[in-house]
Design goal:
heterodimer; A: alpha/beta; Aldehyde Dehydrogenase, Chain A, domain 1; five-stranded parallel β-sheet; B: about 475 residues; alpha/beta; Aldehyde Dehydrogenase, Chain A, domain 2; about 40% helix; Aldehyde dehydrogenase family protein (chain A); Ald_DH/histidinol_DH (chain A); Ald_DH_N (chain A); oxidoreductase (chain A)
Chain lengths: ~290, ~475
């Protein structure tokens, strides 16, 4: 056994590619499943939400305007980095979720594979969701999917990594940008993911991760006029109808959540991708 | 120069087969509603056309239960190939009764007969025809091997395209195996009730289609009824938000097609005469009662004066008046209430300092009419540049660079449609990518087709109508 004191990490928020503390100065203790202290996490505030939305909006033109091939490569690169941090994620998932090492391993592997699955979607979306439309007249007409914009994501409370990846990756695969509120009690894998994203080629602001209470931050995201969509997965069940009502103020796209958290190990489908896509139909005359 | 005046060319109103009374259609039968009857008015003459019975809350309940029965026992499990034939029948019967429907639509709504005859009715028929063919091909639509219907659809539609909006709502719902309870607009219930006759003649099983006339309270009762699985609404953004709030927490599936404030962008290399025709079509088509109307004209500064001059000359020739006259270009404003709203917004434009030009065309003595109006010198902060006027009023702004055009075009919480006029192909495609709107018309405007998905970004709503992606609204996916 070494005598050396280990260097503990300060866990922070991830906004616009930087790692600030909460402007509120608040933090809260994060414990493992047995109640042993792991770390202090920053407790994000309303103002942090606003900063994160501003960063996400600023990043949107560049990210949505990148070629699909480029977005695919950037996202695949994230999977490569996740693989490199595999051991750290396994330890954090095991500590956070209280699962055995073998189970934690399979969760992390699933999360990495899921990321790869979504990375591969970027340049297929327009083919699968777009169409050429045979209108009854001399017009060339096509429909293409486009990203919805800025999405507020209340990440799952239970599944700290696989669940998080399952709700985040489809947002950014479409070209939308995200403000994520992580699991309150299990935020460490989310913070580590933000470190991965910061060292990847994902531009700052495309993903912003806030640790803190979905119950506190959700209403600000749901009512924010510059947020286009909101995923209620990690919201307390008792608040979901209110959040949906608040979201109606600017006609947000709402991803409702089932009453209990889905089984994230099940194979994903295209439904989440679709929720972050708009369809644009373009007309042009032919022959005149 | 000799001026050749138009001779009157009125369509015969008897063709509308107007009846003194219309009743609601529930469970396959026309029955007296227990709500307060409404009188529907011809907006071009202010005469009462007919008395229409309206639904009460208990009628809504009866209709939803009938729709549920029809869905569970018959329609939802009927083979798609059989459903298709019913929907084809409706398409054909609309075409057969096209002239009657067109005249009735113009009487009840005030839109010019050439428009109801050439646009509304043919497109309504086409919408049923297109969707009929989907009924037995849904497994190829990209929603899995056997996509199921949602169930009972509650649908609320506006007064600007009464029959066409009914078709946009009912056709995909039926093709996908849903049953419907539809509320037409308070001021334009008649053609939807003739459509109900067609549904009856086509021998659809009772309860598959229910049509309940009434005001907003009936719409609210339909939307909020716990037996409704899916809500579809076309109308104002304000009411759309109320509906989204009302169904929060219920799990009902929702699609909204709401308001707009479309930018119609004209570059200096556009063929100006062609652009003028498109601008006129964009804002004066259907008296400007169009959610996707090109109500904000953005003109490149170098051609603004020339374009405005051509535009005013062209707008001066628009004939405003009797909707049943085949030469009429702009008909009646649908209601006194809408006319008031238009008048108020126009007054705000003047008060805020925009320069008003209004066509000197003669207006009829009776009825609700508003002469085509063009505001120039409009700035982005003015109400007439931000709010949906829903009338024959165009706001003209200018820009210098394509980037500025994009920024101004996108400077709105709406996002339904947009137009681009330029001869440069690469600029069209660049603009089409940059404009945050669900429909982009390049070198054309206000074109619609059942195969072309239609719907908005942002506060113009969500979900699409038409095309393959439009089916999703009515499938349990």
């Amino acid at each position: 056994m070494s005598d050396r004191m280990s260097v503990l990490k300060t866990y922070k928020l991830f906004i616009g590619g930087a790692f600030p503390r909460s402007e509120s100065g608040r933090s809260y203790p994060v414990n493992d499943h047995r109640g042993n202290f792991l770390a202090n996490a920053a407790q994000a505030s309303r103002k942090d939400v606003r900063e994160a939305v501003t960063a996400a909006r600023k990043a949107f033109p560049g990210w949505s305007g990148a070629t699909a091939y480029n977005r695919g490569q950037v996202l695949y690169r994230v999977a490569e980095l996740l693989e490199g941090r595999r051991e750290q994620f396994i330890a954090e998932v095991a500590a956070s979720e209280g699962v055995q090492a073998k189970r934690a391993q399979s969760i992390v592997d699933g999360a990495i594979d899921r990321w790869v699955w979504y990375a591969g979607w970027t340049d297929k979306l327009a083919m699968v969701f777009g169409s050429s439309n045979p209108v009854a007249g001399p017009y060339f007409n096509f429909t293409m999917p486009e990203p919805t914009g800025v999405a507020g994501v209340l990440a799952p409370q239970q599944s700290s990594l696989l669940g998080l990846v399952s709700v985040l990756a489809p947002v950014i695969a479409t070209g939308s940008t995200a403000v994520v509120v992580s699991s309150l009690d299990r935020p460490l894998p989310a913070i580590t993911l933000s470190e991965v994203l910061a060292t990847s080629d994902v531009p700052g602001g495309v993903v912003n991760i806030l640790t803190g209470r979905a119950a506190e931050l959700g209403p600000w995201l749901a009512s924010h006029a510059d947020v286009n969509a909101i995923d209620l997965t990690g919201a307390p069940e008792s608040m979901r109808a209110d959040l949906e009502r608040a979201a109606a103020g600017t006609v947000k796209r709402v991803l409702r959540a089932p009453s209990s958290e889905p089984d994230w190990t099940r194979a994903p489908d295209i439904s989440r991708l679709k929720r972050y896509l708009e369809h644009k139909t373009v007309w042009h005359p032919v022959g005149v | 120069m000799t001026t050749w005046e138009y001779a009157p060319a009125p369509e015969n109103r008897d063709i509308a087969n107007l009846k003194p009374n219309y009743r609601m259609f529930v469970d396959g039968e026309f029955t007296e509603g227990t709500g307060e009857p409404l009188k529907t008015v011809n907006p071009a003459t202010e005469e009462v056309l007919a008395e229409v019975s309206t639904a009460s809350t208990s009628d809504v309940d009866r209709a939803v239960k009938a729709a549920r029965r029809a869905h569970d026992r018959v329609w939802g499990k009927m083979p798609g190939a059989e459903r298709a034939k019913y929907v084809y029948r409706i398409a054909r019967m609309i075409a057969e009764r096209a002239r009657e429907l067109a005249v009735l639509e113009s009487l009840d709504n005030g839109k010019p007969i050439k428009e109801s005859r050439d646009v509304d009715v043919p497109l309504a028929s086409a919408h049923f025809f297109h969707h009929a063919g989907w009924a037995d091909k849904l497994s190829y639509a990209g929603y899995g091997p056997d996509p199921r219907p949602v169930g009972v659809a509650g649908q609320v539609i506006p007064w600007n395209f009464p029959l066409l909006m009914a078709a946009w709502k009912i056709a995909p719902a039926l093709a996908c195996g849903n049953t419907v309870v539809l509320k037409p607009a308070e001021t334009t219930p008649l053609t939807a009730l003739v459509l109900a006759e067609i549904v009856q003649q086509a021998d659809l099983p009772p309860g598959v289609v229910n049509i309940l006339p009434g005001a907003g309270d009936v719409g609210a009762a339909v939307v909020e009824h716990p037996g409704v699985d899916k809500v579809a609404f076309t109308g104002s953004t304000d009411v759309g938000k109320i509906i989204q709030r009302a169904i929060a927490g219920t799990g009902k599936k929702l699609t909204l097609e709401l308001g707009g404030k479309a930018a119609n962008v004209v570059f200096d290399d556009a063929p100006l005469d062609q652009a003028v025709e498109g601008i006129v079509n964009g804002i004066f088509f259907n008296q400007g009662h169009v959610c996707c109307a090109g109500s904000r004209l953005l003109v490149q500064e170098s051609v603004a004066d020339e374009l405005l001059e051509k535009l005013r000359a062209r707008v001066s020739t628009l004939r405003v008046g009797d909707p049943l006259d085949k030469n009429t270009d702009v008909g009646a404003i649908n209601s006194a209430e809408q006319l008031r709203k238009i008048t108020d917004l126009v007054a705000s434009g003047e008060a805020e300092g925009a320069e008003r030009w209004t066509s000197a065309c003669p207006l009829p003595d009776k009825g609700f009419f508003f002469a085509p109006t063009v505001f120039s010198g409009v700035s982005q902060a003015m109400r007439i540049a931000r709010e949906e006027i829903f009338g024959p009023v165009l706001s003209v702004l200018t820009f210098r660079t394509p980037e500025e055009a994009v920024a101004k075009a996108n400077n709105t919480p709406y996002g339904l449609s947009a137009g681009i006029w330029t001869d440069k192909g690469s600029r069209i495609l660049w603009m089409a990518q940059k404009l945050r709107a669900g429909v982009v018309w390049a070198n054309t405007f206000n074109r619609f087709d059942p195969t072309a998905p239609f719907g908005g970004y942002q506060e113009s709503g969500f979900g699409r109508e038409g095309g393959r992606v439009g089916l999703e609204a009515y499938l349990d996916v």
